[in-house]
Amino acid sequence: MTTKIFLNSRCSLTSVAKPSFFNVIISGGGLIGQTMACALAKNPVFKNTNILLIESSSKKDYAQKDSYSNRVSSIAPTTIEFFEKLGIWKNIKRYQVMKDMKVWGYLSKDYINFEHDSNNPAYIVENDEIINAAVMENTKASNVKILYGSTIKDVTLNVGKRGRNHQIKLVDDSLYDTNLLIGADGANSFIRNVMGSDYINWNYKQFGIVATVLLSESNENNTAWQRFLPDGPIAILPLEKGISSLVWSLTESKAKQILKLPEEVFVDALNEALHSEPQKNEVAAIVNSCSKSLLGVFGPKSFSQPLIPPHIKSVVPKSIAAFPLSFGHCSQYYKDGVVLIGDSAHKVHPLAGQGVNIGFRDIQNLEAKLSQGVSDGRELGDAMDLKHYETEAQRHNIPLMAAIDALHWIYTSDNTILKAFGNVCFQFTESMRPLKTVMKQLAT
């Protein structure tokens, strides 16, 4: 049986006086919401569980364009395994293998080379490709319904006799009841506000500029490049031969200046950011020399290959866009049968490319805890299972988010000592394999 998709919730549901009941309601039909619905639908434990996904945007028939979208994600090997399990990966038709990532700074040419196992590489995939792939699976699921063009207006918690029935009212006043409400509605989450959980956040006072760029080189293009600069990191992610995706973090004032440039001048600024010679810094030079001497005695030799970033030939017309960057973390991921996943619960700087992978890890974690709870005889969304989800998620998310935030502040700091420390990190991480392995495992 195929899923019935309601393109507009105003059609016939408004005439129903009694609220419709769904075991699970998911708010948000983006990358995380669609994948969450798919994960539940594919789990045999939930074969009799009715799932409603509410998405505010209208239904769009996806058609792959010749040009790439400027919104892409770096998908970790563990996430790829999850997609394969759900049947999502087979639906993704356009992607690029990322064999390694070279990371360096602006005070020296020392760099870290994060290599992926050839059998388990990372991939660069357009966000729309992932969403469409998940929608294809949800459309085939008999226990998933999707409401497009619908927005939640109000949520009343614990309205049932048993205290575990939440009522959702849409903008057209149609009503839905559920035992488990999942917030996957992004950084400005309405569901998080309904929960009333404390939310720690700050503005980085930066913009992330994204674009699709054409390279002068026509090699296989399987390397990602990231350079830490005083105003923020710049990353070049491979899409195919001669084409890459740009993510460039800049201060608000610098970003506004860059966005006003003609495209050819924009490209010049981009190449300058990637290829400029290391800045001279006396303290950093002394620390550099000492650390290299130390590593020469106690550590293995590193930096045997020269660092040669790609040269940008041009930018794809009308592909340049920008968005503000911020940090956010919810102190509580669940409350009374309401639970948060993805950006609804946490938001990080894009410098490490881990934001979406953290969200996909949330999904795997939540699905596993809910499944175990039902298998053990507890009700779907029991507080014990949601607590287990929160504990495991925060145990992983908080250290990773703290590390990403620290990287941002270290490499954008005006403090000379911090700058020197940040540069030495490239040397020690590349030279000390155990440290490099730990950092790679933390990120994936």
UniProtKB/TrEMBL annotation:
Cofactor dependence is on: FAD
- Is Oxidoreductase tagged as a keyword? yes
Q: Where in the cell is it found?
A: Mitochondrion inner membrane
Which pathway or pathways does this protein act in?
Answer: Cofactor biosynthesis; ubiquinone biosynthesis
UniProt membrane topology term: Peripheral membrane protein
Q: Which InterPro entries match?
A: FAD-bd (IPR002938), FAD/NAD-bd_sf (IPR036188), Ubi_Hdrlase_CS (IPR018168), UbiH/COQ6 (IPR010971), UbiH/COQ6_monooxygenase (IPR051205), UbQ_mOase_COQ6 (IPR000689)
The UniProt record lists the FAD-binding domain at 23-285, 318-395
Top EC class of this enzyme: oxidoreductase
E.C. numbers: 1.14.15.45, 1.14.15.46
One annotated GO molecular function:
4-hydroxy-3-all-trans-polyprenylbenzoate oxygenase activity
**Which UniProt keywords are given for this protein, alphabetically ordered?**
FAD, Flavoprotein, Membrane, Mitochondrion, Mitochondrion inner membrane, Monooxygenase, Oxidoreductase, Ubiquinone biosynthesis
Q: Which NCBIfam families match?
A: Ubi-OHases (TIGR01988)
Please describe the quaternary structure of this protein: Component of a multi-subunit COQ enzyme complex.
Extract the HAMAP family matched here: COQ6_monooxygenase
| Name of the protein in its database record | Ubiquinone biosynthesis monooxygenase COQ6, mitochondrial
Native organism: Nezara viridula (Southern green stink bug)
What gene makes this protein? coq6
